[in-house]
Amino acid sequence: MPRSRTSFGPPNAKPPPPRPGLPRSASGAGCGFALAAAVALLLVAGGTFLWWQDRQATRNRAQEQRAADGIDQALARLPGLRRQGLWQAAEDAQVQAEGLLGPGSPPELRRHVESSRQELALARRLDDARMSRISVQTGKMTEAEHRALYVKTFGDEGFDVLGAADTKDVGARLAASPLREELLAALDDWAHWEPDQPTSERVFAVAQAVAGKSWRDELGVRKLDAEQVEAFVSRMPPAERSPVLIRAAASAVQRAGGQGVRLLQDGLLRSPNDFWMHYDAALMYEERKELRLAAECWRAALAARPSVSMVINELGVVLLELGELSAAEEHFNEAIRIEPTHLAYSNLGNVHFKRGDFPAAIVAQRGSSVRYVSSTVSFFETLKSDWKWEFGSINFPTP
Fold first, then answer.
1. How many domains are contained in the chain?
2. Among 53, 86, 266, 282, which is 20 to 30 Å from 308 by CA?
3. Which CATH number covers residue 334?
C-alpha cells in the first residue's frame, strides 16, 4: 500500500503517548497568566515610580516656591533698612536671600539676587558720601575730600558727572537705575552743599536731567531772600518737595535771617522719618537755644539712624546743658562705644567735672588727649585756675 504524502511514520502507526505533566491547554494558560502578572507588576511599578517622581517634583516645586518667597521677603526689607542706615541688618537680609538660592533656582531669580547685592553696595557708598557731610562739619574732612568722594562714587559706576560732555545722557542713565531715588538724593545733596559754584551748577544740571524738573536748579543758582525762598518752595508741587530740597531751602532761609526750621517742620509732616531734616532742625533749635525741641529732634534722628555717634554725642551735649547729667553720661558712653572720638571723651569729662568728680573727669580727658591733645591742655588750665587743683599727686591712668 503506497504511503500518503503527508504521512511521516510507518503505515497505520499509532500516535505517541502524551508527555507526562500538565495538559497542553493548561500549560499555555499558565504562561499567559505569568506574562499577564509580569506586565501588571511592571505597570504597577512604573505607575508607582511615576507617582513618586511626580510627588518629588511637587515637593521640589514647593521648596523652590518657599525659597523664592523667602528671597522676596528678605529683599523687600532692604529699602527700609537702607533708609535707616541699618547696614548690618541690610547685609544680613541680603545674605539670607543668597542662602536661599538652591541648585534648582531659576536663572532670573539668581540674577535678581545678584543685582540686589550690587545695588546694596552702591546704596551704602552713596549713603557714606552723604553721611560724610557730618565729617566736613566736624572738621574731619575737607570740602575737596568730600567732592572727591562723590566723584569717585559716581565714577566707579560709570557716571562721569563732572566730565561728561552731555549731562542729559548721564542723567538718562542715572534715571534708568533701580537706585534712581538714592542717586538723585546724592546729587541734590552734592549740588546744594558744594561751595564751588561752577561745580554746583554742573551737578544741578545732571540732577535736573535725572528728575526732568526745570525748577530743581533754580534754588541753587538764584539769589533769593528768606521770603522769596519760602514762596518758591510753596509753588513747588508737594509731591516733588524732596527732603534734600527742603533742607536746602531751609538752610537758605536761615542764612538770610529767616526761620528755616518752619520749612523743615512742614517737610517732616510728609517725611517724618527723614534723618537729615531732623538733624538740621536740631541744629537750628540749638542755635535758637530751644534745647527741649533740639533734644526731641536729636531723638527723632536717632530713631531713624540709631548708630550715628555724632548724633548721640550731640544729644548728650543738649542734655548736659539741660542739667540731665545721668542721661548725658549715658549718651557720651554710648558714643564712645560706637566711635571713641576726643569730643565724646571731653564731653564725658565735663559731666564728671560738673559733678565735682575731678579724678574721673581727668581720666575722661586723658582719653580725649589721646585723640586731641589741645582739648586736655585747655581743660587742665580750667581746673588749675577755677579749682586750684593740685596735679602733683595725681596718677593719670590710661582709660
1. 1
2. 266
3. 1.25.40.10
The amino acid at residue 65 is Q
Instruction: Give the largest Cα separation in the chain, rounded.
Output: 162
* Residue 323 forms part of a structural domain: yes
327 exposed, middle or buried (CB, 10 Å; 0-12, 13-18, 19+)? middle
Query: What is the model's pLDDT at position 229?
Result: 80
Please check whether residue 382 is in contact with residue 350, taking contact to mean a CB–CB distance below 8 angstroms: no
Is residue 277 domain-resident?
A: no
Closest alpha carbon to 130 in 243, 252, 54, 233: 243
CA 243 and chain centroid, separation: 18
- The answer for 388, left when phi > 0, alpha when psi is -120 to 50, beta otherwise, is left
Given a cut of 70, is residue 180 above it in pLDDT?
A: yes
Specify if 342 maps to a domain: yes
Alpha-carbon gap, residue 107 to 100, rounded angstroms: 14
Contact between 281 and 268 under an 8 Å Cβ cutoff? The reply is yes
Is residue 333 pLDDT above 90, yes or no? yes
Least confident window among 97-101, 213-217, 297-301, 332-336 = 213-217
What local confidence, expressed as pLDDT, does residue 244 receive? 76
- 51 vs 293, which has greater pLDDT? 293
Supply the pLDDT for residue 332.
Answer: 94
Band of pLDDT at residue 218, cut at 50, 70 and 90: low
Identify the CA nearest to 250 among candidates 292, 214, 282, 273.
Answer: 282
Residue 90 located in a structural domain: no
Q: What cell was used for 348?
A: 564725658
Q: How many residues does the chain have?
A: 399
Q: Which residue's entry shows cell 549718651?
A: 331
Domain that holds residue 344: 308-399
Alpha carbon of 354 to those of 27, 30, 323: distances in Å?
114, 109, 9
